[in-house]
Amino acid sequence: MSGDVCIVGVGIHPFGRTDGLSGLEQGVFAVRQALADAGIDWPDVQFAYGSSDSAGNPDTMVDRLGLTGVQFINVRNGCAAGGSALFSAQMAIKSGEFDIGLAVGFDKHPRGAFNALPSEYNLPDWYGDAGYMITTQFFAAKIMRYMHEHGISQTTLARVANKAFRNAVHAPHAWRREPVDMETILEAPLVSDPYTKYMFCSPAEGGVALILASEKKARELGKPLVRLKAATMRTRPPKSFEVFAPSIDIGGGTATATRIASADAFRMAGIGPEDIALAQLQDTECGAEIMHMAENGFCKDGDQEAWLAQGRTELGGALPVNTDGGCLACGEPIGASGLRQVYENVVQLRGDGGGRQVQGNPKTAYSHVYGAPGVSAVTILER
Amino acid sequence: MRVIAEGLVTEDTPPSLIGGRERESGRVVFPCPPGERYEPVALSRTGTLWSYTIQRYRPKSPPYAGPEAFRPWAVAYVELPGEVIVESRLTDVAFEDIRIGMPLELTMIPLDPEAADPVLIPAFRPTGAAA
Predict the structure, then answer these.
(1) Which residues of A touch B75 (CB under 8 A)?
(2) Rounded Cα–Cα distance for residues A357 and A289 (Å)
(3) Which of B27, B77, B79 to mutate to test the interface with A (most CBs of A within 10 A)?
(4) According to the model, what pLDDT value does residue A357 have?
(5) CA distance B67 to chain A (A)
(6) Nearest residue, CB atoms, B51 vs list A128, A145, A250
(7) Which residues in chain A touch residue B90, judged by CB atoms under 8 angstroms apart?
């Protein structure tokens, strides 16, 4: 195939809680919207990759969309599921096998923290019995160490949440769209120190669909060319510090799946962090956004304290981060979360962001997911 | 002494955590994984606090097997010098007195403090704290 893989259609079912609508139905909703956006019909779709962690088999949506016999492959890859579906879809087009296809992700999780079992993570039962199978514990311990090493304050954590809810006011697909002031965030009950309840995202529901096409096909459709310059997915290197870790190597915690996924994405795209106009960074909790700013190469460890105070990651700042409020405001339906970031980037590159539109006609946008069990996926879009 | 799992601590008094040393690389992990690749080793009983948090809500059951009644507890990552950083409970210290870098030693505490014959889990406490 010559040219780039392009994203020619996007669709989203609002994130949050939608009683009476299954996760899969939210995925179907997103697919219909994306088809309409691309100006194509379901029978035009040559292949699909679908991701869902706990809301059923994505391929069964052919019941609703039409029994065209389309190739439909399900992806389950922890928190990188959506990114992996997108990666696979672009490879299918890059290979020359197909011209146009779908990446769709959806999920619907029960309320409260994720309920993981040790056996699913190759861990002994006692680890769960003793109360360690808890994602919030890990995130809190990780940022506690990071704050100690790099001089990050709890106020800076609160600034991340405050920004997320303010941005989400202008994002119709976001879940929590009321601004929350700094004092309320800081004085709310602690969930896992140093995090208060406003500083964690919640498991949620939602669906996102992206139609990908070869550049030739995209030109035929007459759509603005939003090019997927890089899509990477990586697993953890030695000395990383991941969720559900009974032990860490000495000196551990600095090497991460994110660092290698990011470096490879920049290498593929042939540009650097300084060339990115806006970024969606995994913000499972406030500290994740802070750490991921550095892990993705946008700043040095410790710079975040000044960056946040100066508003550099605000919508009007030098590098707007999580322009739709991210996971903090949208919640995290695992299978859809990474695709939501790419959806938001396409909206921004088309200039359709409304009240949350990044000014200055952005040409490049970056997305990054990270999560259990030490996986990360990055994309770079260019217009 | 009834420990939450076999192979977690040595039968010495006082006990040590049992880690696994990868035979090929020398890398130490905790707990010791099954199989021939790792050789069980008794880990240092003392170390320093590497990081921590406070568990402020009762974990979901399953898998949590602790008592229904819940009081927040501290979770620690403890650096055992030259060996590995292990995850453990932190005990015998007020939450506001916890400091990264503080010296700690291994002890065993009940998973359910109210139980008659409690299951014990490893914990670290400030060095020299009363038994």
Answers:
(1) 132, 137, 141
(2) 20
(3) B77
(4) 98
(5) 10
(6) A145
(7) none
| Mean pLDDT, all residues of chain B | 95
Residue A258 · residue A376 · CB < 8 Å: yes
Query: pLDDT, tens digit, for every residue of B25-42?
Result: 999 999 999 999 999 999
Q: What average pLDDT does chain A have?
A: 95
- As for how many domains chain A has, the answer is 1
Does residue A173 lie within any of the structural domains? no
Rounded to a whole number of angstroms, the distance from the CA of A187 to the nearest CA of chain B is 15
B121 lies in some domain: yes
Domain range for A282? 5-111+201-382
Nearest CA in chain A to B75: A137
Chain B CB contacts of A141 under 8 Å are 51-53, 75, 77
Q: What is the mean pLDDT of residues A74-89?
A: 92
**Angstrom distance (rounded) from CA A147 to CA A100:** 45
CATH number where B100 lies: 2.40.50
Residue B130's pLDDT is 56
Between chains, do B95 and A193 touch, taking CB under 8 Å as contact? yes
CA distance A110 to A333: 10
- Give the span between the Cα atoms of A115 and B116, in whole angstroms: 29
The minimum CA-CA distance between A127 and chain B, rounded to whole Å, is: 9
Is B63 in contact with A129 (Cβ distance < 8 A)?
yes
**Cβ atoms B71, B58 nearer than 8 A:** no
pLDDT in tens, A155-165: 999 999 999 99
CB-based contact B53 A137, cutoff 8 Å: yes
For B41, counting Cβ atoms within 10 Å of its Cβ (0-12 exposed, 13-18 middle, 19+ buried), the class is middle
* Residues of chain A positioned with their CB less than 8 A from the CB of B53: 137, 140-141, 144, 192-194
pLDDT of residue A113 exceeding 70, the answer is no
Indicate if the pLDDT at residue B131 is higher than 60: no
CA-closest candidate to residue A6, choices A275, A223, A271: A223
| % of chain B exceeding 70 in pLDDT | 98
Across the interface, which of B8, B50, B64 has its CB nearest the CB of A128? B64
* Domain range enclosing B61: 44-126
Please count the structural domains in chain B: 1
Handedness of CA A268, A272, A278, A283 (dihedral sign): positive
Tell me the per-residue pLDDT of A262-272, one tens digit each, with 9 for 90 and over.
Answer: 999 999 999 99
Q: Kindly report the number of other CB atoms within 10 A of residue B66's CB atom.
A: 20
CATH at A31: 3.40.47.10
> Is A253 contained in some domain?
yes
In this prediction, does ipTM exceed 0.90?
yes
**Chosen from B22, B51, B84 to mutate, greatest number of chain A CBs within 10 A:** B51
